[in-house]
Design goal:
The protein has no helices and 12 strands.
Amino acid sequence: IYRAVPLNGEQAPYSYYGTEMKKYLYGKVSVYKIFHTNGKLKSEVNYYLGYKDGVCRYYYANGKPEREEHWILGNRQGTFKYYDKMGKLVKTAEYYNDNLVSETKAK
């Protein structure tokens, strides 16, 4: 008898966009990383029960941060930070229960 076993651990397939790495916990993706073709990290997204959860980070090909997001079970919550290609903070946005509360451009 065949019995499907939930995935646990890491899986690293290659895609058109570069290398991917998924970390599974009880059959669900818990951390999803994508790398630029130059090998530098492009994104690191955390999941819980299939929803974005926790801090998610995105990077430019030069390794500088592009944006940082905070999620709770698929809802935007807290401060989102946006950066230019040199890594300078250009904008912040505050979310509460997936609703934009305020947005501020950096000086």
